[in-house]
Specification:
The protein is largely without helices or strands. The protein has one helix spanning 66-74, and strands at residues 11-12, 17-19, 27-29, 35-36.
Length: 86
């Protein structure tokens, strides 16, 4: 599913509970007044190096352009490279 996050959303994530790090068992709760806005496309950080632990199981590519998506979904060959130009 492709989504485009609003970079100016300032959604209130107060009291949102999440894992402290990838693979961690302990949780942290976001404090009151925690606004978050989403990144725009191709600015989503790589989960393997984003700083909340190591996640090498998530499919992530630096460029998920419309042409990459169209190749993935609407062609008989699909993607032939994990990274790089489409």
């Amino acid at each position: 599913m492709l989504v485009e996050f609003d970079p100016n959303a300032n959604d209130d994530f107060s009291s949102f509970e999440r894992l402290a790090a990838v693979g961690a068992e302990e949780c942290v709760t976001e404090p009151p007044g925690t606004p978050l806005s989403g990144p725009v496309h191709n600015q989503l950080p790589n989960p393997a190096t984003a700083g909340r632990g190591t996640d090498n199981n998530t499919f992530w590519v630096p460029d998920f352009s419309p042409s990459r998506y169209n190749k993935l979904i609407y062609t008989t060959t699909g993607l032939t490279q994990r990274c790089g130009p489409t």
